[in-house]
Amino acid sequence: MKRTDFVILGYMKLSVITYLIITTVILVAVIVFVAFEIPFHIIFFTTLLGQILFIYSIFKVLTDTYTTDKTFDDFYEDHPIKKESARFIHESQKKELPNDN
Fold it and tell me: Of 1, 51, 60, 90, which one has the greatest count of Cβ atoms within 10 A?
């Protein structure tokens, strides 16, 4: 790597989700290490690293400066719900339903 590469990497800001992904990969690696009977000291230090990253990830999530203009009225972005006024059908659009009497 060139000297400028280190400068660029030094200014990169990792997002919160990146920390969570790295933590998840490390803790899943612990499970794989146990399944393949890797020596205990490697499992121990990988677990220790994963726990430290987990605590740091929680810290990053709680101190993140993320803001949004969404409210609970907007529900989920992938499955938005309509506003209350749009849910009801106007009286002129209702069809007569047969009476069961």
Answer: 60
- Nearest CA among 68, 31, 75, 64 for reference residue 50: 31
Residue 40 included in any domain: yes
Amino acid found at 15: S
Number of independent structural domains in the chain: 1
Q: Is it the case that residue 44 has pLDDT exceeding 80?
A: yes
CA dist., res. 82 & res. 87, Å (int): 6
Q: How far apart are the first and last CA of the chain?
A: 83
* CA atoms of 1 and 22, how far apart (whole Å): 23
**CB 22 within 8 Å of CB 53:** yes
1 is a domain residue? no
